[in-house]
Structures are given as structure tokens and as C-alpha cells.
Write a structure and sequence with these properties.
The protein is an alpha+beta fold. The chain contains 7 helices and 12 strands. Helices cover 21% and strands 23% of the residues. Helix 4 packs across helix 5.
């Protein structure tokens, strides 16, 4: 006997009553910081600005392998705008008879700003915004929970997403050949926030577009015992929470500690300084102009993600870029030096994105 859809949506079209809210435009946000966070998809109308998929590579953690920067031809505008009234983010209740493994620690489910990886046109696509992740043990029948097959779990979410006007954008699976271009299975699992990856897993990506926003959804099953995973991302720019370190603050830190850490935005996996980083460069220049005797070593650092050799090369190139920008503004190169340390001198842990973001930095160190 065929089962009815049991992933409960807060929409009357599925016969379930609850509070609904109309989708509203995303608020404007300032430039994202720390670096390495540029979406690589074409935005919906009136969405926060981003580089187009055709011209930009998917974002990858600082120092990640170059193979992660393969561009994607997927155009999110190819998905029709949904007309359904969407329920509150992240849309879905727990599957009927199931219980999230995060029930006792719900904070594990949501990040106000993070990077999620989805598949479109057989390529991984990095998308940024508010990210919700949930996991279910589909074979655990403790506490009266009922079991789900992988097919039933996927079919429920596909039906629910379709009811909201969403579209499946990929059923590409993680074969050995697909995974190899992104650095192997361990690397892929990091990008998918721990969702299992392997030839015995099943993965599907979806997209819901409204006139103002994009919602990216990834559904997967796998592991022993069988688990079901759901990731829902509301695409948006990061709301800036770190203010600019001005000349006076830089000088104070240098006088007291001999060094100061700066977060300068570069293009993903490159040493190109982004336009929104120019105010930081201008403050460093002002510092050097104000104190004509000051000499600085410009030192680049990455997080612990990716190959160490690549990270050293990247941090060295970024430090040189900052030096070159200052020389271009008229600073005597004899007053400057540059060096890259890669991941060798972390100032925070690399286990989560908050720590990795702190480690991706450029330091100014006072030279005698």
C-alpha cells in the first residue's frame, strides 16, 4: 500500500494548518568579512548582489585545493519563480514518527551565516546564507520512532519541495570520478557539513526561487545505520559585525603588542585584493605615512583546510599583494617585507568556521 507524504509542511495545500508568513525581501547587507565567501550563482531578482556563475568559481575554504574552484554552468534563473506562499524558514517539520538527533541540542541545527554546497549541472556550487541542517536515524525505533526507507525519506521531501514550487536541480551522485575532482571523500564530507558521501549514499539538490530570495535544499541518505540528512539554505549576504580597524587602533596594537591582525578580503583561493578591502589598505597606508620611521613585515596566514603547500603559497602571495598595493600608493618598499606562514600559526581552532575565519588573516608586524 502506498504511504502518504509524511514530511509535514506548514502549508494548507498539504492539509496541515499552522501559522504562515509571506516571503519578504532580504535586507541589504554590508560586504562579507572575513574573506573567501563569494556566492557563485546568479541571484534572483532583487537578491543581494553576487558574482555570476559564469565568471566566478564556487567559494571554497581558504587554502582549499585548486580543483575545488571549477566553475559551474548552472544558472539559478533557469528555475521558475515559485508562486506558493512559503512557510517560515526552514519550512519542514520532522518526518512523521521520527525525531531529530539534535532534539536535545537544537542550536546545532542552524547557523545565521554559513556556506552550503549543492549540486547543479554536475558541479558543486557554494552558496552562502542562513543554513539549517537536520539529521534523522531512519532505522532507530527507540521511543516509538518508526523506520523509513531511503526511498520513502527522499520521496517525502521531494513531494514537499515540489508543493512549494521547488525544482530538483541535480540527482548527480558521488561516484569515485565525481569526488576525485574535489579532493576525495573526506574533503567532500567537510563541504557538506558531515553529510555522508559514498557510492552507497543517495543525494538530491533542489532550489526554490521567489521574486526576492533563493532557497537551496540538499537531501541525502546513507551510512549504517541508515540516516537521513536535510540542509536548507536561505541565500543572503552576511551582515557585517566587525568594524574597520582604523589607523589609531592599528598604531596602538603595534605599540603594545608589536603586531596587529587584519582581515583583508581576497578573491576566493587567489591573492587578488577585493575592492571592498581597499579601505583597510588605505588605513595601513595612512599609518605608514603618519609615521615615516615605521617598518612593517606583512605576514599572511590561512586556516588548516586544504594542502599545507598550497596554503603556504597562497598566504605568501596574499602578503605580497598587500605589500604591492602599499608600494603602489607611494610607500618606500625598503620599509616593507612580506612572508606567508600558511596554517602554521593559528590563533584559533580549525574545527569550526568561526575559528577558521579568525585564522584567515594578514598580520602587520613591527620591524626594528
Amino acid at each position: 500500500m502506498q504511504r502518504s507524504s509524511t514530511v509535514a509542511l506548514v502549508v494548507s495545500a498539504l492539509g496541515i494548518t499552522a501559522c504562515q508568513k509571506q516571503d519578504t525581501p532580504a535586507p541589504a547587507a554590508t560586504a562579507a568579512k572575513p574573506p573567501d565567501a563569494s556566492p557563485a550563482v546568479k541571484p534572483a531578482a532583487n537578491a543581494p548582489p553576487a558574482e555570476s556563475a559564469a565568471s566566478s568559481a564556487p567559494s571554497a575554504p581558504a587554502g582549499a585545493a585548486a580543483t575545488l574552484s571549477a566553475t559551474s554552468d548552472f544558472d539559478s534563473a533557469s528555475v521558475l519563480v515559485a508562486t506558493a506562499t512559503l512557510p517560515p524558514f526552514p519550512f519542514f517539520k520532522e518526518p512523521s514518527g521520527q525525531r531529530s538527533i539534535h532534539t536535545d541540542n537544537p542550536k546545532e541545527r542552524t547557523r545565521d551565516f554559513n556556506r552550503g554546497y549543492f549540486i547543479g549541472e554536475k558541479k558543486l556550487i557554494a552558496v552562502e546564507g542562513q543554513l539549517f541542517i537536520d539529521v534523522f536515524n531512519l532505522e532507530d525505533t527507540n521511543d516509538g520512532r518508526r523506520r523509513y526507507s531511503a526511498l520513502e525519506f527522499h520521496r517525502n521531501y521531494e513531494n514537499a519541495i515540489t508543493a512549494l514550487g521547488g525544482k530538483k536541480i541535480s540527482a548527480t551522485q558521488f561516484t569515485d570520478e565525481f569526488v576525485a575532482q574535489y579532493g576525495g571523500y573526506n574533503a567532500i564530507e567537510k563541504f557538506l557539513h558531515g553529510q555522508p558521501v559514498g557510492t552507497d549514499q543517495e543525494h538530491h539538490s533542489y532550489l526554490i526561487r521567489t521574486p526576492q530570495k533563493e532557497y537551496w535544499i540538499h537531501v541525502s541518505t546513507g551510512s549504517i545505520p541508515l540516516h537521513g540528512n536535510i540542509a536548507v539554505l536561505e541565500r543572503a549576504a552576511m551582515v557585517q559585525s566587525v568594524g574597520l580597524l582604523d589607523t589609531a587602533a592599528m598604531k596602538k596594537a603595534l605599540d603594545e603588542n608589536g603586531r596587529v591582525a587584519l582581515y583583508i578580503n581576497f578573491d576566493t583561493d587567489k591573492a587578488t585584493i577585493r575592492p571592498d578591502a581597499q579601505p583597510v589598505i588605505a588605513e595601513i597606508n595612512k599609518l605608514l605615512v603618519t609615521d615615516g620611521t615605521l617598518k612593517l613585515s606583512i605576514e599572511g596566514h590561512t586556516d588548516g583546510t586544504g594542502a599545507p603547500d598550497h596554503n603556504h603559497q597562497l598566504s605568501t602571495a596574499r602578503a605580497r599583494s598587500v605589500l604591492g598595493a602599499l608600494v603602489g600608493l607611494g610607500i618606500d618598499p625598503a620599509r616593507l617585507a612580506s612572508k606567508g606562514y600558511g596554517p602554521d600559526q593559528p590563533i584559533a581552532g580549525n574545527a569550526d568556521e568561526a575559528g577558521r575565519a579568525k585564522n584567515r588573516r594578514v598580520e602587520l608586524v613591527k620591524m626594528r
